[in-house]
Amino acid sequence: MPPATTNGAPLTVVLVHGAFADSSSWNGVIERFMRTLKEQCLYLHRFQSLAEAHRLIGEFITRYNTEWLIERLGHQTPAGARIAANTTAITISDRVRLRRRHWAKR
For each of the chain's 106 residues, which pLDDT tens digit applies? Predict the structure, then answer.
């Protein structure tokens, strides 16, 4: 089956969640997200067109990322967890940089 497209471009879903990219923990994350997507969006709508499906699924994903509190993420939204992870990464990076400067001065 060819991939679904919209205006000639393939549809893409990107999941950002509390799993490590190189671990099998993604299996459970993806299965849980797909279950939620089906129960809270796909099973509730009879899409009349690909454009309508794209719009409604996009709205659900936006709501999921910005409003749903995920237990695995410490009861944060996925968007909030991503911001926290980026902030932590920057903080760690800054600490390393500062430590290098400190040791370079000695």
Answer: 445 555 666 555 555 545 445 556 667 778 888 999 999 999 999 999 999 999 999 999 999 989 999 888 888 888 888 888 777 666 666 666 666 766 676 6
Tokens for 72?
A: 């695995």
Residues facing 5 on adjacent strands:
10
Q: How many C-beta atoms surround the C-beta of residue 74 within 10 A?
A: 11
> Does this model's pTM top 0.70?
no
Are 60 and 40 in contact by the 8 Å Cβ rule? The answer is yes
**φ, ψ for residue 68 (rounded to 5)?**
-75, 130
